[in-house]
Write a structure and sequence with these properties.
With about 290 residues, the protein is mainly alpha-helical. It has a single domain, classed as MetI-like fold. About 70% of the residues lie in helices and about 0% in strands. Helix 3 packs across helix 14 (about 270-290). The relative contact order is 0.13.
């Protein structure tokens, strides 16, 4: 007699979920958290930088519209309670700003123009021309970057005096028309340009002048504009050399006018000084906004 088979219960085994899923989610969340923390730190750093840069500018604008009594009031007020334009009127009449504007525009335009021109051409020579002792000459140029400008004031003054250019526009402009920094900056940028394009222009018969104007300058426009802006700001704010080389008030420039406001009447009228500073800042600000 055959024995009946006893059926065994079927065991259903549920596969365990991989433990790596939770680990991966934790790693992703930790990575995102680190990214957000770094981004937050960056935003806080930018806000702090904006505060450090913007607070003096705001204080200048605020005091330009305050009366003297409110400027010296303690505790100081953050904004003018009785705004006035009298400081701007006083500053404009105390110093010949119209003449100073003309002088500063002329010296800045020609000074920056010559500086950019010499920087563009000399950097091209150092990169694309082959001549003896080229690297040695560039090292000498780098050494010139380490010489403070104040050291060259006396020899420049003697040279300008021998040329008879004291108290003239060319006496203000030419000593600062060629700066080693521009050549260094543009040379480093020229070295990143694709050499194939330049070789193609050479095959087509383009000379050095055409290559510079038609190819190098358009490709190097970002570096040239950046250097031009730096040069404009430096020439516009130049104080020491124009003060040394000029002898009459009709040849002074705007930064000297600000100093003149501070000593005009023996006492410092800070409202007038801040208004004069706004006269100086506005043109440079417009150049940066529309560059």
């Amino acid at each position: 007699m055959a024995q009946a088979e006893v059926s065994q219960p079927v065991r259903v085994t549920t596969p365990a979920l991989p433990t790596t899923i939770s680990t991966e989610h934790g790693a992703i969340w930790a990575g995102q958290r680190n990214v957000w923390l770094w981004r937050l730190a960056g935003y806080l750093g930018m806000m702090l930088s904006l505060l450090l840069i913007g607070l003096p500018v705001y204080w200048m604008i605020s005091n330009a519209f305050k009366l003297s009594q409110e400027i010296y009031h303690l505790p100081p007020t953050l904004y003018p309670h009785n705004p006035t334009l009298q400081n701007f009127v006083n500053a404009w009449h105390a110093v010949p700003f119209d003449r100073y504007y003309v002088n500063t525009i002329i010296t800045t335009f020609f000074g920056s123009g010559f500086e950019v021109l010499f920087g563009v051409t000399s950097a091209y020579a150092f990169v694309f021309l082959r001549f003896p002792k080229r690297e040695w000459l560039f090292l000498i140029l780098l050494a010139a970057l380490m010489v403070p400008g104040q050291i060259t004031i006396l020899p420049n003054y003697v040279t300008i005096g021998l040329l008879g250019w004291i108290n003239t526009y060319q006496g203000i402009v030419l000593p600062g028309a060629s700066v080693a920094y521009g050549t260094f900056l543009l040379r480093q940028y020229y070295k990143t340009l694709p050499i194939d394009i330049l070789d193609a222009a050479k095959v087509d018969g383009a000379g050095h002048l055409r290559t510079l104007v038609a190819i190098v300058l358009p490709l190097a426009k970002p570096a040239i504009v950046s250097f031009g802006l730096l040069s404009i700001v430096a020439k516009w704010n130049d104080y020491l050399w124009p003060l040394v080389i000029t002898t009459t008030k009709d040849m002074r420039v705007l930064p000297i006018g600000i100093r003149w406001l501070m000593v005009e009447e023996g006492t410092i009228e800070w409202g007038n000084v801040m208004a004069g500073a706004i006269f100086v800042v506005i043109p440079v600000l417009l150049v940066f906004l529309y560059a």
